[in-house]
């Protein structure tokens, strides 16, 4: 694939990273931060892999598929954790949605790369 075809997924990756950072920051403001530790850790992991994957795609890395698969897995895990809090925390709901979109985009693109 030509790297210009990666633009939509790079945008999704950057958006997911930003949403995860927002969620982690908001979780730190919650009254019971100890209850949110796993969510915060996964938010940070997801943000990091999304940014790294976006960078890999931007430079047309030979390892793009590996990055995409790892990113999809971490987005899935983060999304599942945020879903647990989505009913009473808007930032977790928004993060879970962003993670699901990003996971789907990563899996879709990874399936096209040999």
TrEMBL record:
Protein name as catalogued: Four-helix bundle copper-binding protein
Gene3D superfamilies hit by this protein: 1.20.1270.360
Top-level taxon of the source organism: Bacteria
InterPro entries xrefs: Csp_YhjQ, YHJQ-like
CDD domains: DUF326
Annotated organism of origin: Adhaeribacter swui
Signal sequence bounds: none
Keyword line: Plasmid
tRNA-binding in keyword set: no
